[in-house]
Write a structure and sequence with these properties.
Shape: globular
CATH topology of the largest domain: Rossmann fold
Radius of gyration: 21 Å
CATH superfamily of the largest domain: P-loop containing nucleotide triphosphate hydrolases
Distance between the termini: 29 Å
Order of helices and strands: EEEHEHEHHHEHEEEHEHEEHEH
Largest sheet: 6 strands, mixed
Number of domains: 2
Strand order of the largest sheet: 5-6-7-3-8-9
Structural class: alpha/beta
Number of helices: 10
Number of strands: 13
Helix content: 25-40%
Strand content: 25-35%
Amino acid sequence: MATLIEARGLTKAYGAKRALDGATFTVESGRIVGLIGPNGAGKTTALKAILGLARCEGELRVLGLDPYADRAKLMQQVSFIADVAVLPRWLKVQQAVDFVRGVHPRFRPDRCEQFLARTNIDRRSKVKELSKGMITQLHLALVMAIDARLLVLDEPTLGLDILSRKQFYDSLLNDYMDDERTILVTTHQVEEIENILTDLLFIDRGRIVLDTPMESIPEKWLQLVVAPDRAGAARELKPLTERQLLGRHVFLYEGADPDALERLGEVRQPSIADLFVAKIQGGLA
């Protein structure tokens, strides 16, 4: 696989605050990568650096280019969705299509029309007359018609209902993603993208604190649920974190023996949210 994004020691300071503090990571082609972190962790700054909107210290190459110095060339191969609210409300649907056709050299009007044909969107309607779900569909039609190698999504479904969010991600998988394209997505709704991700990047206080492919999670981390009388024995196996849920104890382990855990209680694969909470709280440090 080719490396699309390579960051080494990426650092960005705003006064005394470091939004990025030596962040190091890579993103390979054909992957769907979740960049997950709490508010103020550095997600937006990292995306700005990748898109050439912010100059940072350290080394950063995106599609083999310096994103800040070669931004015009880079953006011919990159698409970006901040959230579905960014489309001007006064803009008509056909005007939006015509605008993207005029400014992006890799925009394919035929693909855009194919996608819009599967919706109930009236080309004469203004954005303000569309439902949130329709705005999402319009946004997708515009973005998926761009023959880009990298799609960057920053909270793309913010404010949408659960049905519209599901349709958004289904369309990404069915109509956009292939072995040559890569998606980098940030979201607070980690549970609904868990099943589509191939890789995880956790960021906290400007540093990458977890960088792992999804297939490695069941190999490295296990969750154990036990009754209170087994909690002592579970603690002896040195869990990373412990919490209580409905009268039972839930432990998270790294590199533990599955057979030893199964003798104590129910063994599960932890969710992204479980790993995220443990990591950000320092349990996996």
